[in-house]
Amino acid sequence: MTFDPIKDIPSLEGKVVLVTGGNAGIGKATIRALARHGPAKIYLAARRRDAAEATAAELEKETGYKGIVVLSLDLASFDSVRQCASTFTALESRLDLLFLNAGVASTPPMLTQEGYEFQFGVNHMGHALLTQLLLPTLLQTQAIQEDVRIHVTSSNAAYIPFLPADGINYESLHHTGDHKPFVLYGQSKLANALFARKLAVMYPTLSITASHPGVVKSEIWDKDGGGLFSFVLRYLVIPLRVDIDEGSKTQLWCATAPLPKVQTGAFYFPVGKLHTYKGVSANQGIIDKLWEWTTSELAKHGATGWPAAK
Q: Any stretches that span the bilayer, and where are they (predicted)?
């Protein structure tokens, strides 16, 4: 499928957008593309505020769009996630497009502030809490304006053959022992895909998708985790990489193409190619277990739960 963001994205007049990890990589490319279509605001949420502000200034100069607002967001800290959501909801009563785009890969053995394996904590848990906190605004927007979407940036790493038989080894998520970066990354990306699929069932009035952006030339691959990850990175990943503008196209398509074409709960490969769920990603028991585990873990840290669907 051909998709030209300049020609094929419709007017976004009046819409409010939030992109996590928007200071670099495909998040930055996503904001650049959306800015050219005139949304009311684009919120760039990122950990490094100085880098985010520099990106916002660069994109404003490049596109002429003056509606980029920077939010501080460290997905490895639930306190930071809560503050980000609180800041956003104090500024806005509307949210049309939420891109859960930020991610890390090949990190050294370490835990998030709440004690989760770092890749899983950032890529899944932080985004899950942010989604829970922003859902009331998303649902409120949908009640007024039907087309409201959430997009989760996953990866084909969700389907690597090295994952545990049940997809996710939950015992591996609270310690740094037996550190296998590529497997842990795959678990986090599988969680992204399963989370999007379950979220679509829980909130059928929203359009919720996940995608593999392709193997992209971005900062996420700048670290070498050693072992199997090093082999995969050097011989299978780097030779196939595409530029960030190309890598952003699938999530841009998911967020802006006509809804009859975009199926909620679906997983897409570049560009707009529907992926058939299979194996662990098609196992309802595994999907439900992740949802229940995530909900329970968030509750342990003070989360109030998922809002009722409207």
A: none
Distance CA 95, CA 93 (A): 7
Candidate from 77-81, 153-157, 166-170, 239-243 with smallest mean pLDDT:
239-243
pLDDT of residue 234: 52
> What single letter denotes the amino acid at residue 192?
N
Buried b / exposed e over 131-162, threshold 16 CB at 10 Å, is bbbbbebbbbbbeeeeebbbbbbbbbbbbbee
Q: Average of pLDDT values for 162-170?
A: 91
E strands present in the chain: 16-20, 41-46, 68-72, 97-100, 149-153, 207-211, 267-269, 273-275
Asked if 39 contacts 234 with a C-beta cutoff of 8 angstroms, the reply is no
pLDDT digits over 134-156, tens only?
999 999 999 999 999 999 999 99
- As a whole number of angstroms, the distance between CA 192 and CA 49 comes to 25
Helix, strand, coil proportions of the chain in percent (round to 5)?
50, 15, 40
Tell me if 286 sits within 8 A of 63, measured CB to CB. Answer: no
pLDDT digits (tens, 9 = 90+) for 45-67: 999 999 999 999 999 999 999 99
Please give the structure tokens belonging to residue 29.
């490319």
CA 34 to mean position of chain CA atoms:
16
Catalytic center residues: 154, 185, 189
Q: pTM (2 decimals)?
A: 0.93
Contact yes or no for 272/3 (Cβ under 8 A): yes
**Domains, in order of start, for the chain:** 5-299 (3.40.50.720)
- Give the count of alpha carbons within 13 A of 186, CB side only: 24
